[in-house]
Amino acid sequence: MRKLYFLLPVIFLACKSGTSTTKENEVKTDSKPIEISYKVKENEISDFLKYLSSDELEGRETGTKGIEKAAVFLEDFLKKNKIKPYFKTYRDTLTNFNTPAFNIVGVIEGTDPQLKKEFVVLSAHYDHIGLEKKDQADKINNGANDDASGVTSVAAMAKYFSETKSNKRSILVVFFAGEEKGLLGSKSLVEKLKKQNFNLYTQLNIEMIGVPMKRDYLAYITGFDKSNMAQKINEYTGKNTIGFLPKEAEYQLFYRSDNYSFFQAFGKPCQSLSTFDFENFDFYHHVSDEFKVMDIPHITRFTQELLPAVTKIAVSPTQEITMNK
C-alpha cells in the first residue's frame, strides 16, 4: 500500500468525501449465493507467497533486479496456467517511470459472445519499497503483507477462472508495479485502456490480506459508501464477508491504492479489499513484514470465500454493482 501518514490525517482533507455512519456489521444479504465446488489449495498459496516475499527478490522495488525476478515469476505463472497476455506480451511498460518497469497483465476471455466485451479487473500491486538505507542486520523490506498477499490471492483467483472457464465476462488480471511510487503502474495502464475504449464493469483490487481481523466480518472495502459493492459481495457469498471499517474512512484509503486510478479514469465501481485494520499488523513498511508472520489459512479462506462473489460478478446478466448516487 502506498505510504500512509498515520500521524498526519489532515493530508486527506482535500479529497475527503462524506463520512459514513454505517455500522461495521450492518451489511445484509438478500439472495441465495451460488455454490463453488473448486477448492483453493493452501500449499499453493503458501508456496507462491513464500517466493514472492523471499529475500531473493530484495523487496521488489520498482526498477530493480529484485522486481525483475518477480515479474518473471508472475509471467511464468500466467503462462503455466494458460492465461494469455492482454498486450503483445505480459509486460506493460510504465510510461511514467524513468527506468524500465512493467505491469504484468493477462486476460481470460469471457465465454459469452456479448458479455465478454465487458471486463472485470482483478488486481494487486507486486512492487514494494526495496532495501533499507540504514546500516542494520536486516535490510530487506520483503513486503509479504504489502502486497505479496494480495498478489497471491489474485493469482489464485486467476487460476480458478482459467481452469473452470466460469466467466462470461472477460477477466483482466493485473499485477501493478510502481504503486509505492505514487500509483504509477495503474496510472500508466488506465491511459492506454482509455484509448482502447476499454469496457470496464468493475475492479476488485486486493491489498494487504496477510493476517485476519478480530471482527465479525472477513474483510473491509475502501470507499464503502461509493457503490453497492460490499452489499453485493455479501449477497453473492451468503456471508458477512465485507464490513465497514471506520479507520478506512478516516484515512481515506480509497485514494491510496490502484483502484483509485481506475475510478478516476472510468467512474465505475473500483475498490480495494483488505484485512489490514491498523490493529492486527505492526510491520507496515517494515523489514519484519515477512512470510513467517503471514497467516496462510486466512489468505486461503479469504480467497475461497471471495470465489462465489467474483464468479457472480463475472456471470450476472446485468451490471448489478453500481455507483451510489
TrEMBL record:
Signal peptide: none annotated. Pfam families: Peptidase_M28. Residues 103-306 form the Peptidase M28 domain. It comes from the Bacteria. This is Peptidase family M28. It comes from Flavobacterium anhuiense.
